[in-house]
Amino acid sequence: MSVGKRAARGALWNVGASTGTRVIGLIGTLFMTRLLHPDVIGEVSSALVIGQTANWVSNWGFNQYIIVHGVKGDEQTYHVAVLNVVLGFVGLCAVAGTGAVFAPVFHAPHLAAYLPGLTLSILIRRIGAIPDKVLARELRFRELAIASGLADLAYTITAIGLAATTELGGQAIVIGNIVQSTIASALIFRATGLGWFRRTPWRWQRVREIVRFGVPLGIAQLFDFATRYWDNLAFGKYFGQELVGLYNMAYNLADIPAVQVGEQITGVLLPAMASLEVKDRKAALIRSTALMSLVVFPLAVGLGVVAPTLVRCLLNDQWQGVAPLLVVLSMLSVVRPMGWGVTAYLYAFSRTRAIMALQLLKLVLLFGCIVAFSTLGPVWTAGAVGLAFGVQSAVAIGLVILTDRVPAWPIVGAVVRPLAACAVMAAAVLAARHGLVALGVESARVRLPIEIVTGGAAYVVGALALARPSARDLTQVLRRALKRGG
Q1: In whole angstroms, how far apart are CA 336 and each of 329, 351, 354, 367, 415?
Q2: Closest to 117 in 3D by CA, of 62, 60, 165, 162
Q3: What distance in Å separates the CA atoms of residue 218 and residue 126, rounded to the nearest whole number?
Q4: Res. 267: pLDDT tops 60
Q5: Minimum mean pLDDT among 87-96, 263-272, 315-324, 348-357: which range?
């Protein structure tokens, strides 16, 4: 089977399994809003960000190295696996007891109680990271999807069960994370066995090779992590932990299209792009960008348009502050995926310094905008996050146009056409909402399905009219994948 067909099947598995478990997770999150106050969730989120920061500081591009170079032999795999576990253990143990230092900085008095358990969950998941990427390298996305899906389901059941039946509070989320990491790593090891881990003589020359490849990527990954999660810490510093809880909820909802669809496709793109002939990669970049935009953009724009009705329908009074944040943050799921195909393309050529520079640019833009907009309040500050991501994605696309002579209009059109169809969708939803208000329909539970159906129908019409080639391509990909059994 060709790489393209295997990648399409992998993307279908990733998106399908992830979407299913995300629905379950979303239901669980909504239950948690009725069990825990926003400031509790805010403190747990801040502790998780600190633990994950230590994780990424000690990760020097190991995941990408195992995909790109691990296939060359046992020596590469053995060395990167050992480095991954040792450095992860040192980094996470070093930060586990520092909660008392960070608590006053971010106005989170209980942060120190949550940090040790969360670092343990991260370490367990770190141990399973290399076999995870072995499966990805072999395009065995079915096993990855099953492991991830069952682990997410276990987290939801554990966290809700403990929060509902005990007085653990935020610790219910901590224990849920430990269970999730344990199940995910166990299932991944079961799928791979230990055949990939064959001991070889230790060679410092190999370590230096891994470091040369991985340090720029490690720095880039840290920058990427910072732009995705350190804004939580900034919100805690400027606005307090209750706003962190509201912002984190809005961000997670807004991130569903990007993370649960866009990132799953991107997870397939890197090994698939690396497997292609060099001459075929530009065409793959354009095609993948068009398909991702066609799928992710309407989910993101649609979520933002229906956000006021959705929040009224799903969340109780103490969480209604999520609505304006969600409207603004939904733009993240539009602008973030625009540059992901470019990132996979650059990884395939081992252009790690370019990736590092792009992530540094995003980090500087993000926190520059947050500081500048913070005096205007949390909604404007949330808008600064989307602005920074959008500028970085545009620069990434411009980079490959200028340096690699990727045809400008095809890749720009791959983004613009779906956005035009989304504008049609947004106009239709707003018109429907205005009509329902005029008719005196006040119930959010009645208005929400009408808005969703109206928007979906309008997008299909807009996509067929304004992005017909990409729409046909997507239809053919789905038909082939479904015909072959996923």
Answers
A1: 11, 20, 17, 16, 12
A2: 162
A3: 15
A4: no
A5: 263-272
pLDDT digits (tens, 9 = 90+) for 423-469: 999 999 999 999 999 999 888 889 999 999 999 999 999 998 998 88
Give the tens place of pLDDT for each residue, 199-215. 888 889 888 888 888 78
Contacts of 200 (CB under 8 A, 6+ apart): 74, 75, 78, 79
**φ, ψ for residue 211, nearest 5 deg:** -65, -45
Average pLDDT, the chain: 83
Q: How far apart are the C-alpha atoms of 297 and 111, rounded to whole Å?
A: 36
Asked whether the beta carbons of 340 and 269 are under 8 A apart, the reply is yes
Q: What stretches of 197-280 show up as alpha helix (H) in DSSP? A: 204-239, 241-254, 256, 263-275
Report phi then psi at 252, rounded to 5: -65, -40
Torsion angle defined by CA atoms of residues 139, 481, 303 and 289, in that order, rounded to the nearest 10 degrees = 60
Domain chopping of the chain, boundaries: 36-238, 255-486
pTM of the model: 0.69
Cα angle: 40, vertex 310, 471; to 5 degrees: 120
* Tokens matching residue 105: 């900085």
**Taking a C-beta distance cutoff of 8 angstroms, is the pair 46, 244 a contact?**
yes
Give the separation between CA 325 and CA 335, rounded to whole angstroms.
16
Alpha-carbon span 270 to 355, nearest angstrom: 13
Contacts of 469 (CB under 8 A, 6+ apart): 290
Instruction: Give the residue-averaged pLDDT of 49-75.
Output: 80
